[in-house]
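Input (structure):
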C-alpha cells in the first residue's frame, strides 16, 4: 500500500483508520516542523513509536527514578550498559531484575500513547507509510489498539481546547504559599507532586490520574494563587517514592497551539567523572527542554530568540554554556560534551 502526502490534505485520523481497517504492517513516518515521528504497526495496531526530539529511554529512566523504583547507581549502571551495547534501557533493567517487567511495560505503553496522541495537534507536515516487516522485542512487546487511540486522541483535543493558552504540559510549577485548609481531596493529592521541578506531564504521570482532570486542577490552584509557573526547573533535590498502581496508560497531548511537550530530564544523578553517563543523560535532557522553550518563544514572538540568555542561563553538566546559533530561519543547539570540543563524537544535540 503506497500512502504518502500532506497532513493538511489527509489528516492523522484518516491515516490511522485506513491502516487499522486494512490491518497493515509497516512504518508510518510523519515529518513536522518540530519533530519527526515513526509509528510502527503490526496488523493494524501500534507496536511502537519513535520521536527524534524525545528519547524514550531517557524518559523511562526519569519516571523510574522519580517513582523511587530505581536507585541512582542502578540507573547509572544501566545507562552505561545501554551506551556500550545499544540494548534498550527497559530490557537491561528487567534482565538485571532491577525493575519488574510489568512496570516497564506500563510506562513504555504510556510513552507510546503520548507520542501518538500529541500528533493529533499537527495541522501541517508530511506522512509516508511503507508496508514492511516490523520486528517485536521478544522480552518486551507492545500492542496498542489503534482505534482506541484514535477515539481518545480526538476526545482529548476537544478537552484541551477549553484550557489552551492557560497551562501547557511542559510548564514547570512551584508552590507559591502554604496550602490553604480548604483544599479538596483531589487538590491535595495533585499538589503533593508540585515541587518546582516537575512539569505538568510529570505530575500527571506520577498522580496516575486523567491528564485533562489533573491539568484542570492545576489551573484552578494557579488561579487561587496556591501555585505558579517556575521560571526554570532546578536540579532534583530529593525523590519522592509513590506507589505504582495498575491503570490504563495515561493519555497526554500537546496543547493545540503548537506549544510542545517538554519532559524535563534533569535528575539527581551525581557524576563521578567528566565522561559519566549520568552527566550526558542530564545534558541531553536539558538540550531537549531548551529546544521546546526556543520553539515556544518563537510562537509568542514570531522569531527565535537572538540569544539563549533570553530564555535560560543554563550551563551543561561540565559547567560550559550551550552553543546556540540562529541562521536563515533555523536554529542549532548543542553541548560540546565531556571533551569540551565541538565537532567531536561526544557532542550532544
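Output (sequence):
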Amino acid at each position: 500500500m503506497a500512502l504518502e502526502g500532506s497532513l493538511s490534505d489527509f489528516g492523522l485520523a484518516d491515516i490511522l483508520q485506513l491502516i487499522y481497517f486494512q490491518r497493515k504492517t509497516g512504518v508510518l513516518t510523519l515529518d513536522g516542523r518540530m519533530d519527526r515521528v515513526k509509528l510502527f504497526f503490526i496488523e493494524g495496531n501500534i507496536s511502537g513509536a519513535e520521536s527524534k526530539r524525545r528519547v524514550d529511554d531517557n524518559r523511562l529512566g526519569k519516571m523510574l527514578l522519580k517513582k523511587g523504583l530505581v536507585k541512582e547507581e542502578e540507573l547509572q549502571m544501566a545507562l552505561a550498559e545501554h551506551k556500550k551495547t545499544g540494548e534498550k534501557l527497559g530490557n537491561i533493567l528487567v534482565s538485571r531484575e532491577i525493575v519488574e517487567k510489568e512496570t516497564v511495560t506500563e510506562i513504555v505503553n504510556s510513552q507510546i500513547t503520548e507520542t501518538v496522541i500529541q500528533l493529533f495537534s499537527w495541522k501541517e507536515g508530511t506522512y509516508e507509510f511503507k508496508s514492511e516487516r516490523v520486528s517485536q522485542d521478544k522480552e518486551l512487546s507492545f500492542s496498542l489498539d489503534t482505534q482506541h487511540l484514535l477515539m481518545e486522541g480526538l476526545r482529548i483535543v476537544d478537552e484541551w481546547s477549553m484550557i489552551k493558552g492557560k497551562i501547557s504540559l511542559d510548564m514547570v510549577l512551584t508552590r507559591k504559599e502554604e496550602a490553604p485548609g480548604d483544599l479538596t481531596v483531589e487538590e491535595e493529592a495533585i499538589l503533593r507532586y508540585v515541587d518546582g521541578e516537575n512539569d505538568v506531564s510529570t505530575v500527571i504521570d506520577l498522580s496516575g490520574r486523567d491528564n485533562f482532570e489533573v491539568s484542570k486542577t492545576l489551573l484552578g490552584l494557579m488561579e487561587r494563587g496556591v501555585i505558579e509557573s517556575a521560571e526554570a526547573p532546578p536540579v532534583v533535590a530529593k525523590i519522592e517514592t509513590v506507589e505504582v498502581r495498575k491503570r490504563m496508560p495515561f493519555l497526554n497531548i500537546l496543547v493545540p497551539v503548537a506549544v510542545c511537550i517538554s519532559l524535563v530530564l534533569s535528575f539527581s544523578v551525581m557524576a563521578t567523572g567528566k565522561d559519566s553517563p549520568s552527566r550526558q543523560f542530564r545534558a541531553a535532557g536539558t538540550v531537549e527542554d531548551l529546544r521546546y522553550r526556543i520553539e515556544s518563544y518563537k510562537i509568542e514572538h514570531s522569531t527565535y530568540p537572538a540569544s539563549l540568555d533570553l530564555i535560560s542561563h543554563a550551563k551543561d553538566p561540565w559547567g560550559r554554556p550551550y552553543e546556540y546559533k540562529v541562521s536563515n530561519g533555523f536554529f542549532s543547539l548543542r553541548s560540546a560534551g565531556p571533551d569540551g570540543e565541538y565537532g567531536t563524537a561526544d557532542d550532544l544535540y
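Notes: Residues 232-273 have pLDDT under 50 and may be disordered. DSSP finds ten helices and nine strands in the chain.
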